[in-house]
Design a protein that fits this description.
single chain, Nuclear Transport Factor 2, Chain: A, two-stranded antiparallel ribbon, 3 helices, 24% helix
């Protein structure tokens, strides 16, 4: 079981790097870092991470352009969330599927027993 680490802090709207008051790239610490990393994991397309092409959700390979199967989407997102260090369980809940847009939440539990929810 991996210990959660600091991660680069991302702006919640632009999903881009944030600078601290000194102009340096800001870092996020656990537990926020874990939540941000789970959100990043479910946004990442399989093969998109050049240093580890096994990371990501198989959007192009299995989900986009296919009939919508909620169980397939939730399984893919749960698997992506589980790749984040410190995450021991994940459960995806689809709250809406309208005009080809899926919305929902991933509820995950970390190794210290904390349960957190991220929305997509």
């Amino acid at each position: 079981m991996s210990t959660p680490l600091n991660t680069l802090l991302l702006d919640t709207e632009a999903w881009d790097l944030v600078l601290d008051s000194n102009g340096n790239i800001a870092l996020a610490s656990p537990p926020y870092a874990v939540a941000q990393d789970v959100a990043s994991a479910i946004r990442t397309f399989l093969g998109e991470v050049w240093y580890d092409t096994s990371l990501g959700v198989p959007y192009w390979q299995s989900l986009l352009g296919q009939p919508f199967y909620q169980s397939q989407v939730t399984a893919a997102m749960n698997a992506a969330a589980m790749t984040v260090p410190g995450v021991v369980s994940a459960s995806t809940i689809i709250t809406s599927y309208t005009d080809r847009k899926v919305s929902g939440q991933v509820q995950f539990t970390t190794s210290d027993g904390t349960t957190t929810t991220v929305s997509f």
